[in-house]
């Protein structure tokens, strides 16, 4: 399948392709393509999922400032199979209800591309599929439009993921993943993750602090309810404690690879990757929801988007439909953003949905606004300061 | 040369010069420009070179890794090139083929191959354990050691080729003459052959060092996220934190340091000769 080939090449260049949190969206597409290839999902499910992810029937490569057909909206995601899946799940229903043609562009909404477009006054995208990190960075750059919550329904997502400049598209978790064969007993939380004596071996943490700081705080003894506000220095000092045994992952596929090659025994990785590892190792590698950090894929609307604010907001509102979100879940395993979809998830799939009430109960909902706050150091936000300190500690 | 003829030559290279101006010099100036205008006009980005410990650390790592890599690569490259210059025609063809073979392989394939060899359950660790040389697997990759192994492997052909091409121009009779006049093999090599091969040695050193400075994929993959070099941080600043001023400042600094190292070398050697322009 040529599609998978393309994705595989992207896989080989994790660093080059790496784009912060929006990575997760691309990662989902990659996962879906692999599942389709292995016959774990049928083509129809796959296409539906891609449609939901904002991937249209046609991958359009849009020139800067090209003339646009009237009544058209361009949704940009990470391409490949996601193009078709987004179209089926989100695009077609919106076309039917609204009459606006939905075009899915799979060229990848890199934060730097969005900023370049807005700065150059040549915006060709209407709605972008990014992550919390990218949303926060773009917000500071002043290139996004606020989400209009009179159109988009806040009650159809976890309140924590209704940001001023972005809102939840789907949910996923940073979960404590471990190889049963390589650890003496099941780790029960981040304290165990930090216990090098009881659980010897290498671990993997992410190159970026987003999703990692929370784990550090819990390892330092804070209860899940007291994780925020994060004490950056404390969190980074926890990283330093185990740093010699940490191999950092950049992309989702890399995190999976580290378990496959036996280089690590435990890791803080995306639950979708943990699920894949679980399948391919017949349960040897598994994860616990306990102390997991739930976060969200985000919809962003760039300033001066060609289809106009109103259409963009209507599209986002339309994608809140639980049925549509379920199509995406079936293909990719990323949780529906709308809590109403939780009880529609098939019983045998509930264990992989971070949004199930019993799974949510033991996890921490990521507090995005904390990352936006001023850190009090050199005009940096907490996000910026923690990135710097995290990288500094990792590379020291 | 007649003045008229010279004018013709100028016209001949004009298209190339024009292309360079439009597609190379102009974007380069733009990059330099962003480094002093974003986010605010001034040299704020450059002051980070002095102020920020993270940037110090990244620069130290970059320079350290590059110096070690260059030293090992050039020594190994010299030995391989010397062997190639001495052996018979048949062996030389094979050696050249082997050197070029690694040159043609993708940098990613080579990085992943090293991961497979050097990882805790890889060939080298299990081999050493089976032989009873070590009890615990050694951490050979996902650290600076792994990065240097991967980079030396990548750079080796870049060192072998210029040294070898220089050596082919050295007349063996000179060494024989030195021997005939009573020099020991070592003295003949040290006082005759080595000075003659110096241009090749220097061009290899410059080439490998400059290439290493901007290296990206190998440190990113083999370093396990812990060996952060300038290029990787430029990518983070450009794509993740969107601090383009900082990214372009680092890129400009990288470029200046290449010029600076060339200028330093030029004080001691004739670069035109090294690069074959004279």
Explain how this protein is built.
The complex is a heterodimer of chains A (396) and B (278). Chain A is of the alpha/beta class and 396 residues long. Chain A is 41% helix and 15% strand. Chain A is built from 17 helices and ten strands. Chain A has helices spanning 2-12, 14-17, 23-37, 43-52, 81-98, 111-120, 132-141, 190-193, 213-219, 232-242, 252-260, 271-280, 309-318, 322-332, 357-361, 368-372, 382-394; strands at residues 72-76, 101-105, 127-131, 167-179, 203-206, 246-249, 266-270, 285-300, 335-336, 364-365. In chain A, helix 5 (81-98) links the parallel strand 1 (72-76) and strand 2. Chain A is globular. Mean pLDDT of chain A is 86; it is low at 1-21 and 55-69. Chain B is an all-alpha fold and 278 residues long. Helix content of chain B is 79%, strand content 0%. Chain B has helices spanning 3-37, 44-51, 53-86, 89-104, 107-118, 123-130, 144-167, 172-180, 185-196, 198-213, 217-222, 230-240, 244-268, 271-274. In chain B, helix 4 packs across helix 7, helix 7 runs antiparallel to helix 10 and helix 8 (172-180) runs antiparallel to helix 9 (185-196). Chains A and B meet through helix 2, helix 6, helix 7, strand 6 and helix 17 of A and helix 3, helix 5, helix 11 and helix 12 of B.
């Amino acid at each position: 399948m040529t599609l998978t080939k393309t994705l595989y090449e992207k896989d080989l260049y994790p660093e080059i392709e790496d784009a912060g949190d929006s990575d997760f969206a691309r990662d989902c597409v990659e996962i879906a393509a692999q599942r389709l290839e292995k016959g774990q999902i049928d083509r129809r499910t796959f296409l539906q999922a891609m449609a939901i992810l904002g991937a249209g029937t046609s991958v359009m490569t849009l020139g800067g400032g090209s003339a646009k057909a009237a009544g058209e909206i361009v949704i940009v995601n990470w391409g490949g199979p996601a193009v078709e899946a987004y179209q089926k799940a989100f695009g077609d229903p919106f076309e039917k209800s609204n009459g606006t043609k939905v075009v899915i562009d799979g060229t990848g909404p890199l934060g730097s591309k969005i900023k370049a477009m807005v700065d150059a006054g040549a915006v060709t995208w209407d709605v972008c599929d990014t992550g919390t990190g990218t949303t926060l960075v773009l917000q500071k750059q002043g290139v996004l439009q606020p989400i209009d919550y009179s159109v988009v329904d806040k009650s159809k997502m976890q309140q924590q993921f209704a940001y001023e400049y972005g809102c939840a598209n789907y949910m996923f978790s940073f979960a404590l993943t471990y190889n049963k064969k390589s650890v003496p007993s099941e780790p029960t939380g981040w304290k165990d993750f930090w216990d090098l004596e009881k659980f010897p071996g290498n671990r993997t943490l992410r190159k970026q602090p987003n999703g990692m700081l929370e784990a550090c705080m819990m390892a330092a003894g804070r209860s899940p309810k007291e994780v925020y506000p994060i004490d950056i220095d404390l969190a980074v000092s926890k990283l330093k404690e185990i740093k010699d045994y940490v191999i950092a992952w950049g992309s989702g596929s890399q995190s999976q690879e580290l378990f496959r090659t036996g280089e690590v025994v435990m890791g803080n990785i995306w639950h979708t990757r943990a699920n894949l590892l679980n399948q391919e190792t017949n349960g040897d590698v598994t994860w616990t929801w306990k102390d997991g950090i739930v976060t969200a894929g985000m919809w962003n609307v760039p300033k001066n988007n060609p289809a106009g604010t109103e259409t963009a907001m209507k599209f986002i509102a339309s994608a809140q439909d639980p049925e549509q979100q379920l199509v995406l879940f079936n293909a990719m395993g990323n949780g529906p953003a709308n809590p109403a979809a939780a009880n529609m998830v098939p019983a045998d799939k509930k264990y992989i949905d971070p949004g199930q009430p019993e799974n949510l109960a033991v996890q921490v909902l990521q507090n995005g606004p904390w990352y936006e706050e001023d850190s009090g150091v050199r005009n940096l936000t907490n996000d910026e300061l923690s990135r710097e300190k995290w990288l500094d500690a990792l590379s020291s | 040369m007649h003045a008229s003829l010279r004018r013709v030559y100028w016209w001949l290279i004009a298209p190339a010069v024009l292309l360079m101006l439009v597609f190379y010099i102009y974007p380069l100036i733009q990059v330099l420009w962003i480094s002093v205008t974003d986010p605010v006009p001034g040299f704020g980005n450059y002051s980070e070179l002095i102020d920020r410990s993270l940037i110090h650390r990244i620069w130290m790592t970059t320079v350290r890794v590059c110096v070690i890599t260059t030293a090992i690569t050039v020594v190994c490259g010299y030995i391989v090139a010397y062997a190639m210059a001495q052996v018979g025609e048949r062996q030389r063809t094979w050696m050249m083929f082997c050197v070029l073979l690694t040159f043609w392989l993708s940098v990613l394939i080579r990085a992943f191959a090293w991961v497979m060899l050097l990882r805790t359950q890889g060939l080298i660790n299990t081999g050493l354990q089976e032989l009873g040389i070590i009890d615990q697997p050694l951490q050979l990759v996902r650290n600076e050691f792994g990065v240097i192994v991967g980079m030396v492997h990548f750079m080796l052909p870049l060192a072998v080729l210029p040294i070898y091409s220089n050596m082919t121009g050295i007349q063996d009779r000179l060494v024989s003459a030195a021997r005939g006049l009573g020099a020991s093999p070592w003295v003949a090599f040290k006082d005759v052959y080595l000075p003659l091969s110096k241009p090749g040695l220097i061009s290899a050193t410059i080439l490998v060092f400059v290439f290493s400075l901007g290296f990206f994929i190998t440190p990113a993959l083999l370093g396990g996220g812990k060996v952060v070099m300038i290029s990787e941080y430029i990518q983070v600043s450009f794509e993740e934190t969107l601090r383009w001023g900082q990214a372009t400042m680092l890129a400009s600094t990288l470029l200046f340091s290449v010029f600076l190292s060339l200028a330093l070398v030029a004080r001691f050697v004739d670069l035109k000769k090294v690069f074959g322009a004279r």
